[in-house]
């Protein structure tokens, strides 16, 4: 069998946030072990479509190139994933690239993930330790707990779970799986635990955890293998208990 | 609570589907099953339910109001989802889609069923007895409409029971959620049998 010469990419493009999307096809010289990003880099070097027409280079977002930053998420052959980890040899051809539809498109394959960062603010996904004097060392964390919390900490806000979720769309204001799991991460930290009710309150706000419909696509598609549905169920229990405390409790010290 | 209205309504929606609506569903189908033991047996059971003290209050607070709330919020939930089973054909995603689909089928079925039975009895156009259901289900179209309606309702209840246990945080670990899936499958098969068996009796007398 003759060696493969080119790889065809069919890319959904969009010139600006408001303009209409359109498709363009590109034939890229094949190299062994190439990934989707290296294909996009070839297109950038020589932005000529498969019909031989000169066009603008395709824009996309990337950073680490080793599946830890979350910037290069896109829909590849119908499934949202990281383009740096998508190897051409493992993909069906032609390779179709689209921006993730859950997020506003900035240009071509670049999307705006700001809603995910807003979600992290809503659940206060950090540990407040800044003060005017040295607070000393915090409580220690059991090793067993650290090990599973580490799995949750792998979240890179890539947005793949939101893209796969049927309840994250423009008709609902559901916060999405990522931030719910982050609330669980910071609530399990010995110092973060001191502010756990604040994060649970964030999850109980409108558009919070109650938007989850348990379709459980998120846990299937997460590139980091984070147990998102376990996190959601754990936060379901925690918010249930918090709501009982809020209503039946005797003071506001929880 | 005031500031967490959506959270409260969604948790209430989930709870009402099981208590009281799910419990009522099982009770309803079990009482129907008296039909299998004969016309007289069914009439006796139906008369007992009909003559319960405070029946109007029981109906209003255990049946009508909870179902109305569950249905209205449920339709809203159906329309805020953007189903993607074609792209993400996972088992749970299919059940998510079917939960919404059977919710609408069940709403149509129950509306028709209540109109045809409870409302007509209330208006004095029909009597609550074996022959009422026999007359409705003698028509093969209505028989199949009822079969689809009952199975859809029971599916929605069984899968909703799984959803309730997860949404309230009872079943957290993947293993417990899987075992609950099998448990609710058994509930689906058992309750469907009870419902369908009575329908067959009404329609074909066997």
Can you describe what's shown?
Chain A: One of its GO terms (molecular function) is 3 iron, 4 sulfur cluster binding. Chain A: Belongs to the succinate dehydrogenase/fumarate reductase iron-sulfur protein family. The complex is a heterodimer of chains A (254) and B (206). Chain A is of the alpha+beta class. In chain A, 32% of the residues lie in helices and 13% in strands. A 5-stranded mixed β-sheet of chain A has the order 2-1-5-3-4. In chain A, strands 6-7 form a two-stranded antiparallel ribbon. The longest helix of chain A has 21 residues, at 228-248. The N and C termini of chain A lie far apart (69 Å). The relative contact order of chain A is 0.12. The model of chain A has no long low-confidence stretch (mean pLDDT 94). Chain B has 206 residues and is an all-alpha fold. Chain B has a single domain (2-204), classed as 3 helical TM bundles of succinate and fumarate reductases (Up-down Bundle), CATH 1.20.1300. Helices cover 79% and strands 0% of the residues of chain B. Chain B has 8 helices and no strands. Chain B has helices at 5-18, 21-32, 39-50, 55-80, 91-122, 130-137, 140-167, 174-204. In chain B, helix 7 runs antiparallel to helix 8 (174-204). Chain B is globular, with a radius of gyration of 18 Å. Chain B starts with a helix and ends with a helix.
């Amino acid at each position: 069998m003759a060696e493969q010469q080119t790889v065809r990419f069919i890319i959904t493009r969009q010139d600006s946030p408001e303009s209409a999307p359109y498709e363009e096809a590109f034939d890229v010289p094949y190299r062994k072990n190439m990934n989707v990003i290296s294909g996009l880099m070839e297109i950038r070097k020589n932005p000529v479509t498969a019909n031989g027409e000169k066009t603008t280079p395709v824009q996309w977002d990337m950073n680490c190139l080793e599946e830890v930053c979350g910037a290069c998420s896109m829909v590849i052959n119908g499934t949202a994933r990281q383009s740096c980890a998508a190897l051409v040899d493992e993909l069906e051809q032609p390779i179709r690239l689209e921006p993730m539809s859950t997020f506003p498109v900035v240009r071509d394959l670049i999307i705006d993930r700001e809603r995910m960062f807003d979600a992290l603010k809503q659940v206060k996904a950090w540990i407040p330790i800044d003060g005017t004097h040295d607070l000393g060392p915090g409580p220690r964390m059991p090793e067993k707990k650290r090990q599973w919390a580490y799995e949750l900490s792998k979240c890179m806000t890539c947005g793949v779970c939101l893209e796969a979720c049927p309840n994250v769309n423009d008709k609902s204001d559901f916060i999405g799986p990522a931030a719910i799991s982050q609330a669980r991460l910071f609530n399990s930290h010995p110092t973060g635990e001191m502010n756990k009710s604040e994060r649970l309150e964030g999850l109980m706000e409108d558009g919070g955890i109650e938007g989850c419909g348990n379709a459980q696509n998120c846990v299937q598609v997460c590139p980091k293998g984070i147990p998102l549905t376990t996190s959601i169920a754990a936060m379901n229990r925690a918010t249930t208990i918090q709501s009982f405390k809020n209503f039946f409790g005797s003071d506001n010290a929880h | 609570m005031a500031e967490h209205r959506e959270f409260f309504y969604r948790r209430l929606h989930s709870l009402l589907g099981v208590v009281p609506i799910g419990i009522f569903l099982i009770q309803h189908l079990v009482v129907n099953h008296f039909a299998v033991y004969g016309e007289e047996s069914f009439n006796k059971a139906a008369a007992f339910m009909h003559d319960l003290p405070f029946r109007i209050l029981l109906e209003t607070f255990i049946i009508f109001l909870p179902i109305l709330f569950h249905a209205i919020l449920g339709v809203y939930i159906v329309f805020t989802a953007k189903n993607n089973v074609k792209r993400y054909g996972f088992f749970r995603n299919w059940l998510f889609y079917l939960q919404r689909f059977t919710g609408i089928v069940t709403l149509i079925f129950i509306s028709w069923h209540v109109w045809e039975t409870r409302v007509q009895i209330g208006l004095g156009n029909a009597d609550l007895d074996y022959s009422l259901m026999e007359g409705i289900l003698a028509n093969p179209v209505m028989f199949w409409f009822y079969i689809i309606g009952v199975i859809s309702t029971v599916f929605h209840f069984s899968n909703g029971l799984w959803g309730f246990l997860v949404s309230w945080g009872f079943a957290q670990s993947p293993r417990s959620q899987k075992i609950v899936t099998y448990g609710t499958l058994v509930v689906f098969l058992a309750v469907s049998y009870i419902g369908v068996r009575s329908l067959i009796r009404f329609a074909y007398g066997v």
